[in-house]
Request: fold
Amino acid sequence: MERYFDTMFAYINQIWDIPDGDKAVCRQFFKSIQVKKDTILEPAGKIPLYHNFIVSGVMRNFHLDEKGNEVTVDLNNGPRFFTSYFHFMNRSISNENLQCLTDCEILRISRDDVDLSAAMGETQKDYTIKVLQQKMEQDKERINDMGNLTAEQRYLKLLRNEPLIIQHVPLKYIASYLGIKPESLSRIRREIT
Reply:
């Protein structure tokens, strides 16, 4: 499982220089799990229990609209932190589901352990703030893209920035994430090729 931590520390080091003492704290509190494809890791209707670090695999975050249709609001492949951030941090009931779209290798930490490890570590508060700032910037960029880019431009941007997602995620989830109908995405893909 040391490979899991090596992957997480390499990711964190892109954001913040993590000292050895904080690595030891992470090893103490993060637990490794392997999750099968199509598993709902955190269901809607409950308070999210874990902050997940995707070592490998692809996950999505989705909710149901008023008609019962699934709306994909986030797609991610590892390495990356992933949870329903607002509800996890505020310990509130989430309307979102976290689903593994492929087999996933994950390190995760409970909400209580986040607080304990932050009190023990030198830099965890700092890099946690950086991770949350990055998430807020990504959400802001996505909102901007939805309002200012065409469906084709959104697809091309996703294709350019996240080719693994295009390869491993069913088209219906990609279409939902891009805010278009699956048949529109199929047409865009045909026109591009």
User: Anything to note?
Assistant: The CA atoms of residues 25 and 120 lie 7 Å apart. Residues 124-148 form the longest helix (25 residues). The chain has a mean pLDDT of 92. The domain at 2-135 is CATH 2.60.120.10 (Jelly Rolls).
